[in-house]
Amino acid sequence: MTTKTPLFAAAILLAAGAAVAHQGVTNPTVKARMDAMSTIGKNTKTLGLMVKGAAEFDAKTARQAAEEIAVHAARAPELFEAEVITPKSEALPEIWENYDDFTGIANELKEVAAKAAASIDTPDDLRVALGEIGGACKSCHQTYRK
Ligand code: HEC
């Protein structure tokens, strides 16, 4: 267990860093979507720590985290609707040039997370679900986030 402590501590530090990353963002549109993404990030971390073995597997906690991801992913089309880019935002203008594609990926994340929230029973289920969830984050971020 002791060997895992540094990893766990690092994850907590990272999470704390993420919480203040958007400090000073005053635009309410940008802040709302960053907050939603931070919540998605925090819950994805919960799943990641369990997959790595840095946190004990617990199906109920995993399902709840997946549910939170689904809820906030479902809000993305509304949260990103207005084209607002401020210096602290990492959103790329391509979002609004390809809005259907963007919301399509958000919907994909919502679907895989909702499926996970209803079906995770074993660590293997979680591993597969996190792969699908992580794939959606990556496919959106690589095109639409700085
Ligand atoms: C449909 C596209 C899309 C999907 C899917 C998506 N993201 Fe994001 N994410 C963005 C965009 C765009 C930003 C930048 C927003 C900004 O800075 O205005 C962002 C920003 C973030 C941030 C930084 C928030 C902040 O405080 O500045 C985190 C953390 C994050 N995403 C995590 C995730 C994780 C984890 C997933 C998958 C579970 C995910 N995102 C899925 C588009 C997406």
What do you see in this structure?
The structure is a single chain. Helices cover 75% and strands 0% of the residues. With 146 residues, the protein is mainly α. The protein has a single domain (2-19, 28-144), classed as Up-down Bundle (Four Helix Bundle (Hemerythrin (Met), subunit A)). It is globular and about 40 Å long. Heme C (HEC) binds next to helix 1, helix 2, helix 3, helix 5 and helix 6.
Structure summarized in a few sentences:
By secondary structure, this protein is mostly helical. It is 75% helix and 0% strand.
Can you list the ligands bound to this structure?
A: heme C
CATH class: Mainly Alpha
Which bin fits the share of residues in helices? over 70%
Largest sheet, in brief, is: none
**Structure annotation, total helices:** 6
Structural class: mainly alpha
Head-to-tail CA distance between termini = 37 Å
Q: Return residue spans where pLDDT drops below 50 for at least 5 consecutive residues.
A: none
- Give me the count of strands: 0
Rg, Å, rounded: 16 Å
3D shape: globular
Arithmetic mean of pLDDT: 89
Number of spatially distinct domains: 1
For this structure, the CATH topology is Four Helix Bundle (Hemerythrin (Met), subunit A)
Q: From the 3D coordinates, which CATH architecture would you assign? A: Up-down Bundle
How large a portion of the residues is in β-strands, by DSSP E?
Answer: under 5%
**CATH-wise, what's the superfamily?**
Cytochrome c/b562
Q: Summarize the helix and strand pattern as letters.
A: HHHHHH
Main features:
146 residues, mainly alpha, Four Helix Bundle (Hemerythrin (Met), subunit A), globular, binds heme C
